[in-house]
Amino acid sequence: MTLALTAGCVKRFNSSGFEDDGTVIESLSPRDVIINGGLKVTGNITGNVIYGDVNVHPDGNITIDIEIQGVHKNITGFDEMQLNGFTLEDDALVTQIDGKYLVDFWLSTAGGVNRIYESCIAVNGEHVTPHAHRKQGAAGDIGSMSGGSIINLTKGDIVNLQIRNTDGTQDVDVFFAGMRLTRIGDIFT
């Protein structure tokens, strides 16, 4: 069965293509369709996903000043890579659409000898993902950290990638960093 909807129409169909099994398909505009009920699809569904993908890839490195042990600092120097439903403002992704999001982050760093560095995602300054951590080896060694989680975001939330030195005040050099957020559904209470 092929179904073409126009703005404002309401159609009811059962599994045989006849009306009135309780499933309501409603078109609010030429672009928006709401389905109240189940949807079973055989074949492919093509759609548009909400996402934000930013990276820091400097020529050399960016140094993050660590003045106080254990205090998180925002990673800076992000470039807009791919954004749909986010804006990049002051090295943070700003959410434009409420929802549940899959978040991933990664970074390559070097810092003080035998120092432990941790990184995480913060929303409006609050840490919302588990910390990824690594102990720095010899001076100049470059290593990586990565992590991820599923988080709830609402319009206007500010998302930062952060790092801290847990056992000293030695600065950290960031050679590459990135974060990616992908909307995976609505927030349910």
Please summarize what this structure is.
The chain is an all-beta fold. Helices cover 0% and strands 50% of the residues.
Structure characterization notes:
There is one protein chain. Residues 4-10 and 12-21 have low confidence and may be disordered. The chain has 2 domains: 1-39, no CATH class; 51-185, Sandwich (Jelly Rolls). Helix content is 0%, strand content 50%. The protein is mainly β and 189 residues long. It has strands at residues 10-12, 24-27, 33-36, 51-56, 62-64, 73-74, 79-84, 86-89, 92-95, 99-110, 116-123, 126-127, 132-135, 143-153, 158-165, 172-185. Strand 2 and strand 3 (33-36) form a beta hairpin. The relative contact order is 0.23. It has no helices and 16 strands.
Give the SSE map.
Blueprint: E1 10-12, E2 24-27, E3 33-36, E4 51-56, E5 62-64, E6 73-74, E7 79-84, E8 86-89, E9 92-95, E10 99-110, E11 116-123, E12 126-127, E13 132-135, E14 143-153, E15 158-165, E16 172-185
Antiparallel strand pairs: 1-2, 2-3, 4-7, 4-16, 5-16, 6-15, 8-9, 9-15, 10-14, 10-16, 11-12, 11-13, 11-15
Quickly list its features.
mainly beta; 189 residues; Jelly Rolls; six-stranded antiparallel beta sheet; 2 domains; seven-stranded antiparallel beta sheet
What's the domain count? 2
Count of DSSP E strands? 16
Radius of gyration: 22 Å
Structural class: mainly beta
CATH architecture of the largest domain: Sandwich
**CATH topology (level 3) name of the largest domain:** Jelly Rolls
Low-confidence stretches: 4-10, 12-21
Indicate the CATH class of the largest domain: Mainly Beta
What level of helicity do the residues show? under 10%
Order of helices and strands: EEEEEEEEEEEEEEEE
Portion in strands? over 45%
Report the major sheet. 7 strands, antiparallel
Query: Termini separation (Å)?
Result: 35 Å
Mean pLDDT: 84
How many separate helices? 0
What is the overall silhouette?
Answer: elongated
